[in-house]
Amino acid sequence: MADILIIEDDFPINELIKRTLNQAGHRCMQVYCGMDAVDAVDHQEFDLMLLDVNLPDIDGFALYKHLKGIPVIYITARHDLSDKLKGFELGAEDYIVKPFDLQEMMARVNVALRKNNRNQQIIEFAHIKIDFSKMTVMSEGTAVDLSNREFELMRVLTEHRNMVLSREQLLDLAWGDDYDGELRTVDVHIRRLRQKLKLENHIKTVFKMGYRLELNV
Amino acid sequence: MRFRLWEKSFLLTFAVFFVLLNAGLGIWSVMNFKSEYSKYKQQCENEAQNIYISAQKVCDEEITNTEFRRLCSMHSKNGTYIKAENYNGMIFNNLSAKLPELYLIGMTEIYDDIYDYGMYYYSNYDVKYMDSQRGLRFIYAKDMSEFCRQQRGYLIWTGAVDVLLGVAVGLLLYMTMKKIYRPVNNISHELRTPLTSIQGYAQYLSGFDLTPEDRVFAQQQIINEAQYMNDIIDRLLTIEGIKNSRVKKEKVDFTQLLDEIKLGFPDVEIENSIEYVNCDRVLFKSMLMNIVGNAVREGGNVKLTGSYSLIKVTNENNSLSAEDIKMLNKGGLLSVSRIKGHGYGIELCREIAKAHRWSLKYEEEDGQLAAKIIM
Question: In terms of Cα–Cα distance, which of B110, B97, B109 is closest to B148?
Answer without folding.
Answer: B110
